[in-house]
Predict the structure.
Amino acid sequence: MVSWVLLLLAEEHKGRLIEIATGEGKSCIIAMAAAMLAILGNSVDIVTSSPLLAKRDSENWKGFYTLLNLSVGQNIDKIGERLECYRADIVYGTVGTFAADILWHEFEQREVNNFRAFDAVIVDEVDFMLLDHGVQFTYLNDKIPGLRHLEPVLAMVWSYVSQYKPVESNTGDVFFTGNPKPFHQALAELLNPTESKLNVIDPLQLVCMAEQEGLLRKRLHADLLESTPDQVQLLLEDVGADKMKTFFDLAMKYIPYVIRTYVLQEDGKIVPTMEAELSSDEKCEEISFLLTTNGMCFLLHGDKTSLEEMITESIGEHLQLEEGTCDSKIIIQGRQLRQFVKDRLPVWVANAFAAMKMTEGRHYLIKEGEAVPVDYSSTGMIELNKRWGDGLQQFVEMKHRLPLSQMSLVTNFMSNIFFFRRYSGLYGVSGTLGSEEDRRFLQRQFNVDFCFVPTHRRQKVYEEEGVICANETTWQEEICAKVKFEIEPKEWRTHGRAVLVICEDINTATKVGNMIRDNVTENVILYTHSDNDEILNIQELKPGFIIVATNLAGRGTDIVTAQEVDENGGLCVLVTFLPMNTRIERQAFGRTGRKGKPGSAQLIIHPRGLLEDAKQTKISGG
């Protein structure tokens, strides 16, 4: 009762955000505050962090609002019912659905939101909406039929970029490899006769030099001259990494380059070979090769930006981007369209590389022949109404050989910050308002003050010391051992506990779920999809049961545990990755110990990507 009153007791012309521990009834506080604001004559919009929560809360609190003669709606499932939805006193939705409807109404001149007033907005999980996603935008796209003519350009971009595969070194550096080439040809293509003591006109001249130094058998150059491309590797079958390394060390005496050579390990990473004595000239450009077998090597590109520029330039040579030329392979009709391609080509090349890096089951899913984005880092939601722009959607479709969706152009957009600033009153609740710096940012941007509400009941959550595993095998063993220990009865407890295992993405959750089924117990519930997973049929979590989930279970999910679980230690939460920031970690840990119940939480971190995650982690409190 006190919490919702505190929420509304903000100073005039000022909003208020309150921090209240997870499990203390935030949904109830929001409903009561919304009802009071609506009774006072305000149109109230309630913004949640996911469509699932918007639909759930609007349905759960409908009876409460009805008792007060208030109407409630949600703008998630609103096709054909937009006007009816916005006639309600209180509307639940996400920032994306609210902002999109505003753009449709104000810029597309479509009567969508019934000229709804911007009286009051209540933000559930305010840290997520205003901090984590504060700089995000909602876009309106229009499909332009003329852009179909650019699909051959996108196909050319993909054909170029897909030749370059990422490979990681043992130090964590990432290189990109092109197509394999014979060692002499790979070096000859990089040599500029005016900058080299070697006047190389034909790559076979380098083979002759190697023959004279005794590195290769005599008359090999003559055999290569008479061979077909298919016979080259057979003729070079005795040229291994050691001989190529010696050859490149010799070549450095005559060329203004420092050549680094690498070989491939069994674990898929590349390691440098022993360095030769290098010239003290610091101005020498470095080039790197990955040495394989049969005289073949890959040129390694360590600077992704330079590689993108090189590919953009190469593709531009095959397009008619200037008026008057006609010898190009692909002709772009129209001056405006040519300028559009010229401007967007670097972006398309960068997005093609991004599509190569993205992983199915982590960044997206393939559903009914379409690539659908997944918000794996925050909510775990499958974003059915979202499509990527600037060719990224089409490149992912090319990657999986799906039918290409039509390209579109952004016509209007709205930032989350601008959306929230439109309201006369901004109110919000969260379990984690963040650090003092985060709060200063919110105060500057939205003219709000803060209130911190103590817990109604003493929290009984024990946070165990985190574990960083040395390798994937140790990580798997640690998870299985911990789960097994928690679900089994002990001398000090008559029943086992229940366990929630939160994984970074769908692929990992599926893998961990199968691992626990094979090694620990069959009582595993997988929660990776919001609409069709086994968890929808579970009323309460009994002893010995395990939920393996993505971040779908990490924010806004109230997991009900059986009495036997609560009497024997409560729900155990295991987070198997390093969260983006401490607020996300606290949200995940907040799935246990709700409403004064006991529980425990622990991090068991996979070593893969830990260094990269640590660099990107935002330290916000804690």
